[in-house]
């Protein structure tokens, strides 16, 4: 099994959790854990970077919505980087893109959250 990897990087007080590979029911808990670990450090912003994700399943989208709901009204701003048919398309089809801040590049997301 090619396990999905999540990495955590910081740009100032903004946490960037990057996922790669397939984001499905088997790997979504890893993303959830990585997001919760980053949020526990009280960032001003949290970016989930899906640039290297090849498949985004409903379980992965559920983690994004949970994170949106958790950060909504909180001090932490939340954004998602998704570009391409594997990630941005399912987010748009399901309407999730209407609810979360979606960016096509990490630079755009960082520029928005650090401004």
From TrEMBL:
InterPro entries in the cross-refs: Anti-sigma_ant, STAS_dom, STAS_dom_sf
Pfam families referenced in this protein's UniProt entry, alphabetically: STAS
Listed Gene3D superfamilies: STAS domain
Taxonomic superkingdom: Bacteria
Transmembrane segments: none
Gene Ontology MF terms: anti-sigma factor antagonist activity
Family, similarity comment: Belongs to the anti-sigma-factor antagonist family.
Protein name: Anti-sigma factor antagonist
Organism encoding this protein: Mycolicibacterium celeriflavum
